[in-house]
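Methods: example folding runs. The two proteins below were folded one after another, and each record is reproduced exactly as written to the output file, sequence line first and structure-token line second.
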Amino acid sequence: MDGNKLELTVKPTSDLPASYKAIPEADMEGKEAAVTRPKSIVKSKPPTPEADGADEKMLPNEEAVVAKQSPNEKQNGDAKLDIGELKTAFVGLTKEELMKYANDPFWVRLRWFLFITFWILWGMMLLGAVMIILAAPKCSPPPPRTWWEKGPLAELEDTNPEQINKLKELGVTGVIIQWPEDAYTSFDQNHEFVKTIKQYKDQEVNVIVELEPGTSKIWFNESESQNSEFGDYYIWKQPKIVNNADGPQPPNNWVTVKNTSSWTYSESRKEFYYSPQGRPQLNFRNPNVTDEFAKVIKKFLGYGASGVRLRGAPYLLADGKFEDEIILQNAPGCFMTDYCSYSHSKTENLLELSTLLKEWRVVVKNMTENGPFMVADDLSNIEAYKVNNSFIVDLPLQSHLFHKSNANVTNIVQMLNSTFNINNITWPLWKINSTSEWDIITYLIPGTPLVTSTTVQNKQLLKMRESPSVMRGSFSFHAVKNNTVFAFIRVTAGNPGILVALNPSDNRTVVDFPANIKAVSEEVTVQLWSENYHEPDMIINVKQNAHSIPISPRSAIVLSYVPPSK
């Protein structure tokens, strides 16, 4: 039908359905209208399958189709519809269109700029991460314990080499042997003492030589005769002028431990020389005398000694002004002129002592692989053995902790608090009268035990001492069960904790450990006990309820536990 033409126009209006536009009435003039047409837009509805028997689909994107009459068509009853262009969403450039920009200088430069900027930023972030790691505080593991810290050490009077094997069975890593002669005496490699050092060293047992640096008679005659080179190698002082005195009087009130004057008069020189131990005391305020003992240390280390221990260290220096000692008021059990009635602040443990000892310590450390530099005396004035708040002596001796006279929990706790918390001694040398229960304590507490050739061997205790919890673990001590039981724990990350308990009393007791020590778990495993421990229900390597652990009188027990998770 040429006369019936439709002009369809498609408009991108998603909200209007397909419709027909009415034909103007002017086109209908002179014609008899067979059908009356509406004058308004009639919205069509999608045909249903029942109406035409076929499914119809909407145009893409549900665009509205608007039918409009063509102005060029005047035929009666004819309508021409225009269908506009179908508009779709932008789908990007084609390959040919993109290639137009591929080699464009602007886009080439932009791509290179973004590429280089990315890798620069990535490199800066990587560098920043590395710098943060390097600048972060290091968490390096602590250095391993030295041979003299691992211990135990043995203090020997008899240097018979036949006992070396027995000492090795005791786990001894080093022995302390006293030099029997004047420290400044000349000797060579043929001396019996040097041979002994070599014998121990050949059996992988280190030797710490004990020397007394404070006294010697080597240069005394020259000093007494006022030889210009040795005149002040000793401490000399003019007599005190006292009217109507019976002979020369000592320059001050300094006394020895035997309650006699610390001064001895020389008829030859007409002066007093200082002799606090009954022998002339060397003057270590003279640098030449200090160097003389440094030579002695080097000689012994050169012959194979692995460390040095000094005897009589508290008396090495005396007050340069020679002032009187302060008399203590109402000193218990002391008479006015007794040794115990004075403060001894002018003659013992002077603060300058630390500077003197530091010089000799440097010699020992430089000539050995971190060998020990020790003193044989208990440290009554800790500050005299520190430089910049750090100890300059190794293994400070603790000999009064486990005496039977002090064997009660209160005294033990007080002494440990003084040692570790007040004096800040981290690894002392423990000297005890060896018994089964005290051995357990001193082998597992922080520090090195000092044994003798008569100490009983305990292989299990030695093995337990080598564990990380004992060598590196934290330490806390407690008085439990109304101060009747002493207990301490050793624990380090990733290892079982060790619980040690001592009952020094004459009564059997049962302890609830988790109630007294929060770090202890609900169950513990029995590891070891002392000879006096007699509890039939306790079995080695068997778990026990930690709330009810029995401890026999005057005995000790060692338990292991898994630290509770935090």
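Second run, written to the same file directly after the first:
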Amino acid sequence: MTHPKRLEAAERLAANAPEGALSVVMDPDPTGTPSVLRTALAAWRSIAPDATHHLLLQDDMILSDSFFERVHRAVEEMPDAALSLFCLWDSRNGAAVRLGALAGARWVEAVNEYTPTVAIVLPRRAAVGFAEYGARRLGSWPDDILMRGYLRAEGIRSFVAVPNLTEHDDKPSLSGSAFRGPRRSVCFLPGDPARDEHRRLAGLSVAPFFKNGVARCSVRIPGSAPTRWQDIDAEQYLAGQGVDLDRLRSRLRGIAIDPRTPGLWGTWLTSFVTGLVDGKHQTVQQPDQRRDSAAVSEALASIGPGGLSHNRSEQDLDAARGELRRVSELGVAAGVEAAALAVPGRPRRRRPGRAPEAVAVLGGNTPLGEFVVRGLRDRGHQVRVLDLRTPDGTLPDVDYGVIGRSGDARPARELASADAVVDLSELRHDRPPTAPGTDATETTETAERMDARDRTERMDARGRTERTDARDRTETADAGDATDATDVSSARRLRDAAAARSAHALLIRVSPFPVAEHPGPLEYFLHPGDLYGPGCARDSVIGRMVWQALLSRPIVPALRPEESLHPLHVDDLVNAVSVAIRTRPTARALALGTPCSVADVAAAIQRVVRPVPVEPWHAALAGPGQSAAPGDRLPGWRAGVDLAYGLHTFAQWLAYEGEHGETD
């Protein structure tokens, strides 16, 4: 698939393939708005009448020597699967490829992000089906995110090649992706032979990746259906595993390497977690532990450069590659060693004096609540989640109870024995209260400014709420309280439950509402300001701007550019809750958000999400903000998440795990 500006490259690629293997498909509207999806749909529709599978390549791919032989063998081994032949060095699927190389696999099951589509093979039914699916969604998501949604909806498994069969030639981007920096393969060996395509790694539960200068982990939530993942910092993941980060830093300092090497700590962390995960529980479906040392070496060598590629030139990355390769190899070895020393079933180490014994979280069975619960657990708290229904998926080392079921006395006992109760019930609303001086009422003019997609999304969200309410009514019928169907009444039930806590326990209410006139004993109000990040809804001032940029649409602020927002990332909220539990501050109402102008937030979104234009503010689009949250500052706490980085994590969550459902 190509564009007239790159026709020569596409024709050269086709000419170098076996005769008749590749044909060239041109963008059907080359002078229109740039769209990879538009050209991809034309390419998928070009499938030959007698073909069982269809291969799609973008014009800037470099093929391995055994490309076509490996593709044919893989199709024979996995005839019903989608096969991605390339993935980026800083991606989650790149992390999966590294674990696959360490396990001696030739293919690894894809994890939670977009499906790499720059070089991909689909079975015939999937190629035809995606062409129809994507045609109904032109102008929405990019083709790789739509592909992931389609494959998930159709139950089609997706695998990535180990090593990759293609490399990216990194020509100037026609789709606006050049701002992301060099885009290289996680592991490409041009002379890799075709062999052992049956060796596969599936069922990964952790994918450690280094992206935008930060070591992260994508962690699958056990028991969730459909499968959900959480992206957290690698440091948080290791703390939750009982790893002493200070000792890990000391071990890095003991390596004879220039401490000024860029990306040193992030590369070390990512490599250590990779080794830890590999050593603990990764197995090949058809065991054959003959590792390809060349593939392992190449895959590990790309950790550091990939994590720095967002703001470094190709020359800078090449200069640091040798040192970072050594750090990666030593880090993986250290992680494997740590996994071997771990005792199965041993409880995680708890740091003395860092946390009370038990924290009950009310309203934790929401996307946001899951991040708060995991964050408190990983910070050493013993967490119990109490909510109105059974959760879809549970976190290890966390207890769960259901409030309101007849004959179940355990929730009341757990509240009575908790050292602190954290009430998240007032964050359950999709739309927070309107900031003073704004009008959130939808006028005719507002409706005219919204496109058809936004209106559909709002109707879908309303339908989901109604279905959830209906389920709540069914599940609480035994308790004789079937009338509590709305979010407001649900929140009231959770607040009533909080009253059952013991006299010595803290009650921490995370609330966008003004503090009560007469707070109860040991009752604290944490005002989150404009909360954003993984788990947060897109229906807020910040959420809507991020959402617009994700869809490559102009950002239309709902407040004047000079007005203040008070952004607070979810990670900073969790830290604040943990500090409040440990310190029991004197002030009872605490404001957490940090002032920042709407214009500055929009500019940060342009830098880290997509460089779309920002349109002038329009009064009819005025939306809800939390700029008037009252309260004192929390002693011993300060926000630590950089705004740009936080917006990036929010955008990634919205794109891969957020409320767009199946990308509809």
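Comment on the second run: Confidence is low (pLDDT under 50) at residues 283-288, 429-486, 660-664.
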